[in-house]
Specification:
Elements: E1 25-31, E2 44-49, H1 55-63, E3 81-86, E4 90-94, H2 105-121, E5 125-133, H3 140-151, E6 156-161, H4 168-182, E7 192-194, H5 203-220
Parallel strand pairs: 2-4, 2-5, 5-6, 6-7
Antiparallel strand pairs: 1-3, 3-4
Length: 221
Amino acid sequence: MGIFTSEKRNLIVILQKKLMKIKTASFVISNTDISKCPQDGKPEYAFIGRSNVGKSSLINMLTNNKKLAKTSGKPGKTQLINHFIINDEWYLVDLPGYGYAKSSKTNRAEWEKFIVKYLTKREELVNVFVLIDSRLEPQKIDLEFMNWCGEKQIPFSMVFTKIDKLSSSLLQKNLAKYKKEMLKQWESLPPVYTTSSESKFGRERLLNYIEQINLAIEEQS
């Protein structure tokens, strides 16, 4: 697989910028049809991962709003494309998790259809944050999804969650294992982030990354 590049990735420039401040974050719409997604052209950043990876908690941590995305101890709660408008400037998109075995085959097939359509057809999509449970060794389903994104030239970043749940040494071992597996298919890796929804570790880096992309997009427009 080739070096991690795309036309959208070329928009990214390294800029020194203070931490993005989340002034407003509100729900806009949920649906399974990309034609019903917002049509104002604002950039979109999608969050996706294996069920029970801590996606809702991470979204709430990033936006500093504990009630923005619904959290649940039951995996597979998110079943729609959920748009949240941030600072009236960009959209945070919460996508259904993948790999939830207890969902019916029919539901999984339907989810897969509209998720694939959103990821491959949505022009406003700038970057996909692929969430990965840092406590686990490389999971086949995560690797397959990221390789699929590469094949479709969908820009993505790797976001390791729940780093407060394991030791620093084990975290580094798991990160190294993921890097080794990824480099079997990739010439270089996408951006990698480590996060904790409890301690808010990684929040500044992720928000700065989004801010850098938004500023680059503005400069190109």
